[in-house]
């Protein structure tokens, strides 16, 4: 199986979980321009899980996690 595809799926799943648990908070933070600060703890925790599962090299060399943050958490805006 393709490690890049696995990493991309995992990143999207982890970020989707953040939105699933905090949809109103995400919408308000996005409108207020405070998304990074508001979700710092959740993002850090998800990033650590991501690195643990895909490895440091894959996590740092590929934009999958950042892309998922922009696509899913930031609703397509380039916030991260």
Structure description:
This protein is mainly α and 80 residues long. The mean pLDDT is 97. The N and C termini lie far apart (28 Å). Helix 1 (3-21) runs antiparallel to helix 4 and helix 1 packs parallel to helix 6. It has six helices and no strands. The longest helix is centred in the first third of the chain and has 19 residues, at 3-21.
Note the topology:
Layout: H1 3-21, H2 23-32, H3 35-38, H4 40-54, H5 56-61, H6 64-73
Based on the model shown, name its key terms.
single chain; 80 residues; mainly alpha; 80% helix; 0% strand; elongated
Radius of gyration (CA) equals 12 Å
Query: What is the approximate shape?
Result: elongated
**Largest sheet report:** none
Mean pLDDT: 97
Helix percentage range:
over 70%
Distance between the termini: 28 Å
**SSE-based structural type:** mainly alpha
Tally of helical segments: 6
H and E order: HHHHHH
Low-confidence spans: none
In short:
This protein is mainly α. 80% of the residues lie in helices and 0% in strands. It is built from six helices and no strands.
């Amino acid at each position: 199986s393709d490690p890049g595809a696995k990493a991309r799926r995992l990143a999207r799943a982890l970020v989707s979980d953040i939105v699933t648990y905090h949809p109103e908070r995400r919408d308000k933070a996005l409108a207020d321009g405070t998304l990074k600060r508001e979700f710092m703890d959740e993002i850090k925790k998800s990033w650590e899980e991501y690195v643990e599962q895909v490895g440091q090299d894959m996590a740092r060399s590929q934009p999958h996690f950042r892309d998922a943050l922009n696509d899913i958490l930031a609703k397509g805006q380039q916030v991260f």
